Records
---
Amino acid sequence: MSTEPRNALVVYPGGLRARWRWGGSGSGPEVFALSEAGGALVDLSTRVAADADPLCRAELRLESPRGAWSARFASLIHDEPRALHWDTAGLLVVAYGFHTYGLEVESGVARWDHRSATPLIALLGSPRLAHVIVQSELETFAIEPDGTVAWRIAHSDVVTAADLLGGRLVLTSFDGQVRALDPATGRSAA
């Protein structure tokens, strides 16, 4: 039984307008059926698998004052794609499934990608940080504009929520425990 792909329209700072469309396993034909013409098409699905057709698929159409482009993604799990505009780095950072991508805002070209061992649950950024924070179920990564990992922390319990609150990275684990980290360094915060 096939389900309809999901859609979302997101407006990011800087005059960026994104249309997202995504679906479950083998949904490529349905997800891409409404692809818009114009601008470059960047297919990042081969970074996940040589044959992405049976996987979950997503497409992003980004329009900005400088033009438009589209990017296609693949995931081993059904996930809702998420992104943030990292204006100082000139990137749209996308998290989908196990992968995080740093895409150039002007062209959609991938400057870097990062794979986690467990599914991603949050993507966080702040003008006060020199990196973005990627939260997976068992690890927290701080990724710099060039794609290098500034710091990484492994967790002993599954993280179910991550938020930037009051200058702290607040993590909630599956068993309900709450832990606060300094988002700049990854060290425990008081």
Note: Residues 103 and 110 are 4 Å apart (CA to CA).
---
Amino acid sequence: MISKFDVSVRSAQIHLFVFLGAVAIGTIIGGPVGDRIGRKYVIWWSILGVLPFTLMLPYANLFWTGALSVVIGLVLASAFSAIVVYAQELVPGRVGMISGICFGFAFGVAGLGAALLGKLADATSISHVYRVCSYLPAVGLLAALLPNLERVELRAVPEPAD
């Protein structure tokens, strides 16, 4: 924001704070929504749902960058709690292990991604990295490969009349 919009450090920090607040709220909202409509739908919606907003972000002005960042933070972060619970359902009885793997994997991949994006920024520009990152939610198409875990309600089948 500082290089693109020539804002002060204080202004950039306020925008970051607002974005991170939206991420926190999205994380909290994702769990109950996943319980109501299904975790797979929340994962789909949150990852692919942000794609139009992230594609607009590199071309938005300062006002719309702030607004889009809030929407992206809310929607994208709603997937995290749904992903953790979804993974816990895949391996029942191993709640702690699965939670640790999810958090560890998420932070590990984020660290590697940050290093690779930093290297790309050094080789090109931060604006180029910004545009590249706008396409990353398209990876959410892989959610189509997730198995359905929704429980089917069993109903008694009436006996045929004699």
Note: DSSP finds seven helices and no strands in the chain.
---
Amino acid sequence: MNQYLITAYDYTDDGALQRRMNVRPHHLDGVRELKAKNNYIVGASILNEEGNMIGSSMIVQFETEEELEAWKQREPYITQKIWESVDIKPVKVAQV
């Protein structure tokens, strides 16, 4: 499988954190679905100095680029305008 590091930062408007919290249950449902299909490796929230979520980091894996693109089309943090910037890089997770 092809593995990817996703680094995403949220919008910074006044309603950004509340919007994230409203959409978060749907995002986590999607993560559970990825995990059930063996596409999810690890993920974390990126926090600011106050401990508030301002972004996300995930490592996921997909058989094809088309599967990655299909995930992006349905990811709530993308479709609901939580993530303002999304950087996706191919990686290889070390097996130790």
Note: Strands lie at 2-10, 40-47, 53-62, 83-91.
